[in-house]
Amino acid sequence: MAVIRAAESLERGQDRREEDRARHAASRAAEDSEDRRTRLDGQRARQAASRAAEGSEDTRTRLDGQRARQAASRAAENPIQRRTRSEDQRRRQAASRAAQWTFMEGEAFRYGPANNYDSHPQLYIGQMSDVCSYCNALKWHAETRGMCCSGGKVKLPELQPPPEPLKSLMSGTTPESKHFLDNIRKYNSCFQMTSFGMSEKMSDSGFMPTFRVQGQVYHRVGSLLPPSNEEHKFLQIYFMGDDRKEVQQRCKNMPGVRQDIVEKLQRMVHEHHIYVDLFKTALQRMPTDQYKVLIRADMKPAGEHARRFNEPVTNEVAVVIAGNDFEKRDIVLEKKNGQLQRVSETHRSYDALQYPLIFWKGEDGYHFLIEQTDPTTGMAVTGKKVSAMSFYAYRIMVRTGAVNHILQCRQLFHQVDEYIHLKDAIANDGRADNLGQLVILPATFTGSPRHMHEYTQDAMTYVRNHGRPDLFITFTCNPKWREIQEELMEGQAPSDRHDLLARVFRQKLIKLVNIITKSHVFGPTRCWMYSIEWQKRGLPHAHILIWLKNKIKADQIDSVISAELPDPERDPRLFEIIIKTMIHGPCGSINPNCPCMENKKCTKRYPKQLLHDTETGDDGYPSYRRRSSEDGGIKAKIKMRINNSIQEIEIDNKWVVPYCPLLSRIFQAHINLEYCNSVKSIKYICKYVNKGSNQAVFGLERDGVPVDEISNYQLGKYISSNEAVWRILDFPIHERYPTVVHLAVHLEKSSDPIPQC
Fold first, then answer.
1. φ, ψ for residue 321 (rounded to 5)?
2. How far apart are CA 675 and CA 678, in angstroms?
């Protein structure tokens, strides 16, 4: 056969192959499904046997041949063929991924207590065990490749573990350590070299403490020595010249700290912190009060990739004569002066001066001269700089073989205002020299009034095309999720690790959206959108709108949404979840100090009326079935704190927040599910979903006076610790499907209206 084919002419060979293809096509067209399955099974078996018999050299030769043929085939494609192949490949991938979620289609209508939903591999996000090949950061499997180090483009000097006594104090294993960590903000304040200022601090209540500030945050630094007859403060304490007096002054300024701990930390800071050493050296070199100490904003040691910390570096902190020209962001300190200077957010010493217990060696924070790294060569890329977001995302990662002591700092970790660096460009635009000009905060800035207004209009676009949304879901992070508990360090509570709360909630939210839009637990979806907000206690929650292709009928509501306590004997797992996550208050006369109470009434209108059947009205949400105990409803006893004492309260269905049994069982968190049955409520819902976190919303002008929207945003917006981490990690605040394309329409001599609240 080989001899005959070798003697064939080119034309004869082509004719033979065409005849073979025609015979194969005719033979396969005549096959029934059983014949086709038999042929494919035989083909797979022969191919598997052939490959099992291959040696390593044969395998390499076969794969090289396949790659060469594929490369030649793609090189011969025209643009239309290439586009067709790519589209087919995308469709196959989409179909393959969608097939992974079909196991739960319509499951919300047939929830079964015996099913073990929460441990399914598609629903459990697993452990934080994936290791980044570039920076050794630990991540969950579904987290993005570049979240930790931008795919190897960010490479920073590693922070060294703290020396004693700080290392032991951060362990959380001894009474002394627990006292230190409970008061770590106070101890840091004893040693900070700059003052921390803000427009307004927001006080928190509830079980989840967090650090929140409203308005602008700034650090200020004074002179090296205080004016005559004034006490030493902040940086000035380091130059008192008497260790005992220095300790006493720190304890006097910050009541509640232990003198023995302050004394040990003081010795450590004097020994290790580079800026203390540099300031001492500079102070000794100042011949007269006319000279000043200059700290360059972006200085990089010549010929070195990272800063040196073993000796004073004279070109980093210089003594200069008064009257010299300085860069706007440079820190210039006088020997004696009652004036305070504001430290730029992008000055490299911004973090080290304010948080000496975290950056105990005086390590550089973010500045504009940090270069990106080529992942393939490890060399710096000239002209490409690391962003503030990438810098701090790198810093808050957990890595193999190392303990990130930043994440051990509990309340001090909450306070570190890293997110301020991300907003430097906005701060630079809201300046006094813009006075009298209209300063716009555009829709491209996430969270701005225009941005939220655009998303509200997008939601109304869905309504115009597909009618009212069918479901309104509120999904709140649960700090007791096992994925969070498994990653806590010794002695930590979830409230100490907002990085874990943000990362786990992001993964859970993705799972929830996939269950609804890919598994179709409520049926096929047309479109969806969500927005992330932050509660006053710091926990993130998502407001989600869902449009279904097949509307849920009135007689199906009870099979999807429940506002009753589950039967503890029939479904003990769901009963436990609902008791812990879906009970409102109780409030009213039982607990008049509940946060929902205003003017002696519950703002959420609890307790609800008991009903035998669900009733759908003309407006708002339905009145869900809430049966009394006499009518078959369940009662339960819960323990709650009232007036600083634990009391046992009996509750019934009047206090249950509406939920979906399937979703509550899977996610074990607060998931409020509401059925939207009226077009009248749609505008309110769409605005509510996209209203954003607590902030003031301002118009372009008020009474004809130009308004600086950037300054207004800074004064009206507050950031919690969890939101800061969320934005540093570049998690989306909004997502939607399908995409809404904005058409550029502008009426002459008019502007878009911005809603005012």
1. -80, 145
2. 9
How many structural domains does the chain have?
2
The conformational region for residue 95 under phi > 0 = left, psi -120 to 50 = alpha, else beta, is alpha
Say which range, 49-58, 344-353, 499-508, has the weakest mean pLDDT.
Answer: 344-353
Q: Which amino acid is at 136?
A: N
Residue 216: domain span: 166-203+210-365+414-434
Residues 6+ apart with CB under 8 A from 278: 312, 313, 316, 317
Do 429 and 482 belong to one domain? no
* Residue whose C-alpha is closest to residue 568's, from 634, 667, 653: 634
Each residue's pLDDT tens digit, 24-53: 888 888 888 888 888 888 888 898 888 888
Same-domain status, 429 and 478: no
Considering the domain architecture, whether residues 425 and 498 belong to the same structural domain is answered as no
pLDDT for res 705: 46
Q: CA quadruple 24, 25, 26, 27: dihedral positive or negative?
A: positive
CB 491 within 8 A of CB 178: yes
Cα 260 to Cα 257: distance, rounded to the nearest angstrom: 9
Pair (306, 428) in one structural domain: yes
Tell the residue number behind the tokens 């039982």, with chain if given: 590
H or E segment to which residue 449 belongs: helix 449-466
Strand 597-598 with 636-642, pairing: unpaired
Q: How far apart are CA 349 and CA 359, in angstroms?
A: 10
Q: 388-395 vs 721-728: helix axis angle to the nearest 10?
A: 110
Residue at 53 is within a domain: no
Region 527-545: mean pLDDT is 84
Please check whether residue 185 lies inside any domain of the structure.
yes
Per-residue pLDDT tens over the stretch 115-167: 888 777 778 888 999 999 999 999 999 999 899 999 999 999 988 999 999 99
Neighbours of 579 (CB within 10 A): 17
Asked if the structure places residue 372 within a domain, the reply is no
Number of other CB atoms surrounding residue 32 within 10 Å: 8
Judgement on whether residues 456 and 422 belong to the same structural domain of the protein: no
pLDDT at 425: 39
Do 457 and 581 belong to one domain?
yes
Q: How many CB atoms lie within 10 A of CB 147?
A: 21
Asked if residue 266 belongs to a domain, the reply is: yes
pLDDT at 426 over 70: no
Inter-residue contact 522 to 556 (CB < 8 Å): no
Residues 404 and 411 sit within 8 Å (Cβ to Cβ): no
Q: For the whole model, what pTM was predicted?
A: 0.78
Neighbours of 606 (CB within 10 A): 19
111-121 burial by CB neighbour count: b if 16+ within 10 A, else e? beeeeebeeee
**What integer pLDDT is reported at residue 707 of this predicted model?**
47
For 346-393, write each residue's pLDDT tens digit.
778 778 888 889 999 888 888 888 899 999 888 988 889 999 899 999
Q: Do residue 597 and residue 464 come from a single domain?
A: yes
**Mean pLDDT across 174-201:** 80
Point out the domain boundary residue: 434, 463, 488. 434
| Residue 249 clears pLDDT 80, i.e. is over it | yes
Query: Do residue 462 and residue 419 come from a single domain?
Result: no
Where does residue 308 rank: exposed (0-12), middle (13-18), buried (19+ CB within 10 A)?
A: exposed
Supply the DSSP symbol for 372: E
In this structure, the strands spanning 636-642 and 645-651 are antiparallel
Final residue belonging to a domain, choices 434, 464, 492? 434
Partnered with residue 540 across adjacent β-strands are 534
Query: In whole angstroms, what is the distance from residue 584 CA to residue 606 CA?
Result: 8
